[in-house]
Model the fold of this input.
Amino acid sequence: MLKEENKNSSSCCSPSCCAPEQEHSIESNAELLKNSVKEKYREIALGNVTSCCGTVLENGEISDMSEDASQLGGYNADADLNLGCGLPTELAHIQLGDTVVDLGSGAGNDCFIARDEVGAAGRVIGIDFTEEMNTKARKNNEKLGYKNVEFLQGDIEAIPLEDSIADVVVSNCVMNLVPDKDKAYAETFRILKPGGHFSISDIVIEGSVPTELVQIAELYAGCVSGATEINSYVNTVYEAGFEKVKIQKKRLIEIPKEELEKHFSGDLLEKALNSIKAIYSINIFGQKPA
Done:
């Protein structure tokens, strides 16, 4: 939710949060949005900037959108760049021997956690559209020596995999950054085997982001800007053909009013506070009909 508390500097979960201000809506131009996200991921992968997840509190502690994955088997600290907003593998019902695809795999941490669950007989494929991030993931994998984990470069709106390849699809705070979510979920449906399922962590909102605030919201926090209203999000999943859709986990994200004041004030600030009722990190599950 939009919280009126004393917190000072802030950053965001998405690479696009640190992009320079544009005179036009980023969301109105899909390629510009993708390029902005790709450039920020590139900078993070190269170590030029740190993760932009989180709000720095006055006591120096960090309260962010991500969840601690360090207790999960297969966790790899070198691959955890703190860019997620949940633990999609935790509720993914992954079995030994499964083929798991991670959409927006970053430096590979969720893939390595999935590898711990599928075992040597399974297969894990990470998809990310940033070359430098894939390079980082492959280097991490080389250190671990996994022969059944691979990382491919590709767009989630056109996944470079054949039909019906995956038993499970996971993704961690990436779908909200995809301009065409209908395509992304249609592609997720396509690559899943009949009876296969997904477990996706993402950001959704309760309420709405007014049109005149969309651009500012994107520059403030990409994880929020691309987020859709929760009921609309669920409808997108159903329209892609999935069944047994359910929200397995829902966690409130609190954003300080002071951060909003950095980007707009007066009537626009009041409109934001009145329109965006709450922001949530969710884990959503859906199954492809058998």
About this structure: The two ends are 38 Å apart (CA to CA). The first helix runs from residue 30 to 45. The first strand starts at residue 2 and ends at 3. The domain at 2-287 is CATH 3.40.50.150 (Rossmann fold).
